[in-house]
């Protein structure tokens, strides 16, 4: 627990990013004295990761909202597809969550199905999802003062030669009938920066304020603000330029600043939640992925919202609220709880008891093996986000492989095409061995010279360590830790490395960030499993 007491309100600061590691596209919401941040999760369960704060300084992970296939089915989901840009609102005693399930980004087709689910509490239970339109992604709800509810989204245009980001559209939603009604209207076509997306509308001082993201989600990203006296426009763009951007400032720690949403505190202070990236070198690879930061917003004499310098700051003034720290997350997960802790995610399938078992063997996580490292239907990967350039995950595993189709170990992971993996398996001569395998843009590299005979050790310690741009593996057969004599490239586990453009079209995007994970394969479908005794995560900075 932090040493700050609950009644301290003075001279505290918010240090960015407030949600380090893979936490992009933040939607911020205040309900009473509670603040929530919902972020994108793509091909990972639980979908729509949520954090909770009471002072905007200290945040705790609540896990995810989309926990069941009833709400989302990610079987076969492509890398960086799945849940994009969730939107969290509160109205008439209910939380409303809108989320996009994006199935493609090939040839200008996104196939983005938007859904709405509601719940009386942030922890649920969440209603069966309502299918909304598939006109485009980044959908959000706006609850107007007259009681009407409106769905906003970017308007996608697949036609060759047209602007694929066709603007921001709006359509009324009828909560009683649980369906969209009336015509769709295009209310904003964006600025010359283009790639207009991520719309949110707010009412303030007699205006409708439209906040959008422009420039794409990389180095040219920005937050654009426009206003109108009427909901349907016309919308006037802030003549001073973007509310926030890192463009042209490679010296800044926080790059890619954009995709923002606003929140007003109980005392009338305003803050912007937005995504950022922290490259290891100027405009270099962002192994940590896109993260969430906060900026203080002031309203200018002309009525426009302003952020000092229009750039993201590493540290800002906290609001005038009582400090509310949370208990520290334990470094070691002993797997004593009946369910996975909130910091774990699972790849493409929820943590159901057909492959995740925390009950059969007390204080152990039993993982039944899944598909190969490139399988997209039933992989068996339990992972957590890389939260700092220097961090590690350590575990002890018991595994009795029957043949070369059975593997279990520890990984530094980005997607099916980019990972490093130290695993136990069975050699052709019957020995249980440790092997190392890397995959870079789909090209695998084996290290047969580093194969380790475990000597029949029943329990094997495994560790993966990120050291900035380098990644290292170590093992313990009962006589102390030994590091494998190879330095691996951690920067292949990054958004920039994962993205691929072929003939001017995106063949792959990188929208997540690096993860550390416990991975098990049973490629032959023989029912093999591995038992992990604990998992310890450490980070510096």
> Using DSSP, what is the number of strands?
43
Instruction: Give the number of helices.
Output: 1
Percent in strands: over 45%
Helices and strands: which structural class?
mainly beta
Rg computed from alpha carbons, rounded to a whole number of angstroms: 23 Å
The major β-sheet equals: 9 strands, antiparallel
Distance between the termini: 17 Å
Shape summary = globular
Uncertain residue segments: 1-10
Keywords: Glycosidase, Hydrolase
Family: Belongs to the glycosyl hydrolase 43 family.
Protein name: Glycoside hydrolase family 43 protein
InterPro entries: ConA-like_dom_sf (IPR013320), GH43_C2 (IPR041542), Glyco_hydro_43 (IPR006710), Glyco_hydro_beta-prop_sf (IPR023296), Glycosyl_Hydrlase_43 (IPR051795)
Key descriptive features of the protein:
541 residues, mainly beta, 9-stranded antiparallel β-sheet, 48% strand, disordered N terminus
Describe the structure.
The chain is an all-beta fold. Helix content is 1%, strand content 48%. The chain contains one helix and 43 strands. Strands 4, 26, 29, 31, 32, 33, 34, 35 and 42 form a nine-stranded antiparallel sheet that branches. The longest helix is centred in the last third of the chain and has 4 residues, at 495-498. The two termini are 17 Å apart. Mean pLDDT is 95; it is low at 1-10.
Quick overview:
The protein is built from 1 helix and 43 strands. The chain is an all-beta fold and 541 residues long.
């Amino acid at each position: 627990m932090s040493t700050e007491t609950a009644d301290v309100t003075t001279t505290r600061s918010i240090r960015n990013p407030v949600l380090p590691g893979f936490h992009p596209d933040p939607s911020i919401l205040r309900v009473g004295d509670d603040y929530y941040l919902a972020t994108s999760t793509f091909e990972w369960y639980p979908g729509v990761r949520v954090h909770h704060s009471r002072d905007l300084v200290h945040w705790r992970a609540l896990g995810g909202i989309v926990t069941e296939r009833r709400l989302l089915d990610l079987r076969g989901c492509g890398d960086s597809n799945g849940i994009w840009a969730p939107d969290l609102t509160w109205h008439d005693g209910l939380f409303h969550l809108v989320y996009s399930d994006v199935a493609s980004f090939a040839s200008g087709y996104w196939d983005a199905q938007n859904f709405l689910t509601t719940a009386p509490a942030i922890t649920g239970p969440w209603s069966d999802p309502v299918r909304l339109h598939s006109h485009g992604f980044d959908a959000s709800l706006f609850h107007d003062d007259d009681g009407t509810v409106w769905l906003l989204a970017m308007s996608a245009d697949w036609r060759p030669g047209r602007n694929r980001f066709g603007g921001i559209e709006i359509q009324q939603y009828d909560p009683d009938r649980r369906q969209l009604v009336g015509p769709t209207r295009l209310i904003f076509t964006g600025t010359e920066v283009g790639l207009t997306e991520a719309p949110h509308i707010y009412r303030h001082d007699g205006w409708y304020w439209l906040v959008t993201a422009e420039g794409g989600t990389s180095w040219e990203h920005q937050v654009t603000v426009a206003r109108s006296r009427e909901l349907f426009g016309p919308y006037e763009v802030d003549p001073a330029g973007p509310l926030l951007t890192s463009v042209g400032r490679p010296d800044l720690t926080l790059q890619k600043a954009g995709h923002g949403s606003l929140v007003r505190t109980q005392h009338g202070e305003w803050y912007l939640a937005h995504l950022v990236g922290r490259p290891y070198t100027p405009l270099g690879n962002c192994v940590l992925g896109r993260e969430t930061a906060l900026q203080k917003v002031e309203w200018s004499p002309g009525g426009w919202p302003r952020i000092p310098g229009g750039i993201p700051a590493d540290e800002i003034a906290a609001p005038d609220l009582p400090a509310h720290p949370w208990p520290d997350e334990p470094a070691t997960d002993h797997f004593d709880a009946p369910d996975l802790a909130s910091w774990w995610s699972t790849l493409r399938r929820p943590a159901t008891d057909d492959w995740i078992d925390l009950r059969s063997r007390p204080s152990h996580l039993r993982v039944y093996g899944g598909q190969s490292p490139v399988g997209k239907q039933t992989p068996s990967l339990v992972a957590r986000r890389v939260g700092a350039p220097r961090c590690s995950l350590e575990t002890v595993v018991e595994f009795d492989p029957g043949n070369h189709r059975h593997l279990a170990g520890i990984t530094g992971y980005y997607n099916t095409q980019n990972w490093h993996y130290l695993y136990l398996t069975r050699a052709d001569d019957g020995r249980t061995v440790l092997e190392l395998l890397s995959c870079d843009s789909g090209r695998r590299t084996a290290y047969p010279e580093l194969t380790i005979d475990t000597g029949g050790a029943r329990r094997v310690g495994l560790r993966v360590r990120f050291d900035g741009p380098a990644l290292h593996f170590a093992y313990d057969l009962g006589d102390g830790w030994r590091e494998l004599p190879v330095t691996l490239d951690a920067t292949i586990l990054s958004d920039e490395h994962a993205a691929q453009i072929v003939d001017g079209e995106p063949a792959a995007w990188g929208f997540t960030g690096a993860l550390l994970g416990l991975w098990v394969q049973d490629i032959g479908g023989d029912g093999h499993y591995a038992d992990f005794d604990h998992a310890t995560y450490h980070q510096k900075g």
